[in-house]
Every structure is written in C-alpha cells, then in structure tokens.
Amino acid sequence: GMTAAEVGYGAFDAGRTWRELRYQEASYKLFRGYAYNRRLGFGEGLFSREVMPGDVPYYVINQGDREEIIFWSATAEWLKPLFQMTSLPAGGRRELPVEYVLPQDPGLYTGWLEGRLLTSTGADIRLLTTVIKPYLLHRENMYRQELSGSLPAGQYKRYFFKVPPGTSAMQLSLSVTSSQGKYDGRVRLHVNQPNGAPYGMTDWVGLAPQGQSQKGWAGLVIEQPQAGIWEVVVYSSASLSTYGRRDSHYRLSVQLAGVDESSAPSRPLPYFVSVTPKELVPGKLNYVTVHVFDRDTLQPFTGMLVINEQLYQVKRGQVTLTVVPRDEDFVLNIQL
C-alpha cells in the first residue's frame, strides 16, 4: 500500500543514496516543471494539504537550444493533464493545465505527471502531485468521526482530520474489538500536528505480553488544538504472531469540543463575482464558469483564489470549476 509520497517500509541505503545524488547533480535536465503551492510558493511539484487543488496548472520550461514536443500521461486516474502534448520552444515556458478529480474517500493521494519525447524510452520529466483529502469535522456530523479497520502485523494506516479555528479540545480514542473473550489484536496511536511535528502517542491497546495488564482502549485529549490538518496514525504491532494473530481489528473515534464558529477569520472580498447561468445535473460531473472582477477598478482579476475549499487560478477574470452537486442548487464560498 505504499505510495510515492510515503516512506518507512524499507531500509535506508546510504551508499546508493549518495551515488544517486551525485548522478543527479552531474546529469543535465532538459526540462523543468513547477506549480504554485499555497503555503510554500512555487516548487517542482504540487503538495496540497490545507486546500484541495481545483485549477492549479504546472509550468514547464525547455532548457535546451531547440524546440521540443512533450507527450503527457499520468500514473493516477484522478490526475488528468488537459493537453496530450506540449510544444516547447528553445528556452521557452508553457502552461500545462491539469484537472484534479479526487475520489470521494478521504486519504493521501499521490500521482506522477510524466512527459516524454517521442524518441524516449522513459520519462524525460516527472512531476509529483501529492494531495491530502482530510475527514471533515463540522456541525452536520456533530464534530465527530468514527472509523474502523484492520491492519496486518507491522503495518499502519494514516488518517487526516481538518480541525476548524476556535476549537477548545480534540479527543482521540482507539479501541480493539474482542471475540471469544480475547482482544482482536494490538495497536497504538501516533498523532502529528498540522506542521508535521509529532504531538504524542498512546499506550498499546489490546493484547499484551504475559505479566502485563491488557486494556481495551486508550485516548488522547489535545487542549486548544491548532487549526489545520492533523494526522492520526494507527499502528499494528509487529509481534502479533506471539499472540497467534496475523492482524489487528480496531475502532478510531475523533471528537471536537467547544468549537467557536464565530472565531473563524473572515474579511470582505474585494471582488465582484458572478456565475454563468447553467442547469446542473445532480450526482454528475458539471462545469461551472465563474467571473471575478476587481471591486475598485472593475478590471478582470488574475490570480489564485480558494473557491469551495479548492485552490483555483483565475485568468482574465474567469475560471471554470468541476463540481459534482448533490442537487440543482450550488453554493459558492470564496476566500483569498
């Protein structure tokens, strides 16, 4: 289950890493690509954590001395380059629009955009796209999520939860199911803050070595949690065979308390916004065109905006959204 953005399943080969780095430094890259990241600025790849990508293009540069034609493909179904090929003049730059149609389920999604010349046997440029789609905690679900799963020995499952501003506390609870009077495994919880720094972990839950007491659940209470995406990792003990088991069955509960919705930052939007009238088809992929103009100058706006929790590039006052509405009504929530 390892993706391109995950590590930890293998040993670190220092010698080979050093040789690879030396080779990369010596090798000449004909093409370079970059995209806009809301927190980090422009970089060679896209990492989206707080806001999902909506219309975030890549830019590709030809560092050679002659025109080249790149043919595009992607390793993930949700990652779709809108051009099959791009003609790049010598020393020139071109925009590569990309459509992001993520699955409904929350999780960590990674994929590569690969470009190659017609005569190449492999990719001449690879652009890594990583998107974290979190579980949401809001009024409609009583600020609570309850999940269950199973893990083989020595494996882990990563969960991501979006904590809104103004939250007084976050309570995490992990338990192990039982059958025939015995616990169905042995797990523990690791928690990472929105900035990626470790926050803490729980004791082991479930089966325990002889002479140690067993417990059916463990939890953490985080006071005044920072707003953002928290990572919660469930780890299944590597020594399950000691207890005659191959996997662990668990339940994970996340509950927020004291959420002050009035504390969410808000400011007037300095733009006029309108939508091209269109009849929407519920449950299907629809394209909605939004027009944005500067409130003071009345000029078409060009830049990045967050629309319905997704990051979009607005060009010359216009952007097209890909939406799957639940019904015929569609609400726009726009932020800077």
Q: On the 0-100 scale, what is the average pLDDT?
A: 88
Q: What does the radius of gyration come to? A: 24 Å
Q: How would you characterize the largest beta sheet?
A: 6 strands, mixed
What structural class do helix, strand and pairing data support?
A: mainly beta
| Helix-residue proportion | under 10%
Low-confidence sequence ranges? none
Q: What would you call the shape?
A: globular
SS summary, helix count: 1
- The total count of strands amounts to 30
Query: What separation lies between the terminal Cα atoms?
Result: 36 Å
Strand content bin: over 45%
Description:
- The protein is mainly beta and 336 residues long.
- The protein has one helix and 30 strands.
- The protein has one helix spanning 14-26, and strands spanning 31-37, 41-43, 46-48, 52-55, 58-62, 68-74, 79-81, 85-88, 93-96, 98-100, 107-116, 125-133, 135-136, 144-152, 156-163, 169-176, 178-179, 182-183, 186-192, 198-201, 205-206, 217-223, 228-236, 247-257, 271-275, 286-294, 303-307, 310-314, 318-323, 334-335.
- Strands 13, 15, 19, 20, 21 and 23 form a six-stranded mixed sheet that branches.
- A hairpin with a 5-residue loop joins strand 19 and strand 20.
- The mean pLDDT is 88.
